[in-house]
Design a protein that fits this description.
Number of strands: 6
Helix content: 25-40%
Distance between the termini: 39 Å
Shape: globular
Number of helices: 6
Structural class: alpha+beta
């Protein structure tokens, strides 16, 4: 039987409204020890913002993180999956679109994130990526 995304995904993603600032997002990422947040607009999934997005689209451009809105710097051309979708299809989608994270959406709400790290841990627990993904952070 094919493995479903809900069996692999990281549950309960951090979500911030699009009016939140990059500083809010950076602090949320730091506090939760994660590298991305879901961006919502009126409660609906609008985009995904990574720590790299903050650096490249805000800091490196000289924009003040305390004033730039996450809705202005997030990736909003989203590809999403549902918890019941097949993990093999998600892997192929990530491969084709060269993306590292997929928001998992159910009834318009983000219920998880599927990352290449999640897939590495599940599908090849002996790989270097799996070891790195499962390791505790080195604060």
């Amino acid at each position: 039987m094919a493995q479903k995304i809900e069996e692999i995904m990281t549950r309960n993603p951090i979500a911030l409204e699009d009016s939140s600032t990059a500083l809010d997002a950076a602090r949320a990422m730091r506090d939760a020890d994660i590298g991305d947040v879901i961006v919502t607009s009126g409660g609906a999934v609008h985009g995904i913002l990574t720590d790299r997005d903050i650096v490249v689209r805000a800091v490196a451009e000289g924009r003040e993180p305390s004033s730039v809105r996450v809705g202005d710097i997030c990736s909003s051309d989203l590809v999403t999956v549902s918890p019941g979708d097949d993990a093999v299809e998600a892997v192929e989608m990530m491969r084709q679109k060269a993306i590292r994270r997929l928001p998992v959406v159910e009834n318009g709400n983000a219920v998880g994130i599927l990352s290449i790290g999640d897939l590495a841990i599940e599908r090849d627990s002996e790989s270097a990526l799996s070891d790195i993904s499962a390791a505790r952070p080195n604060n």
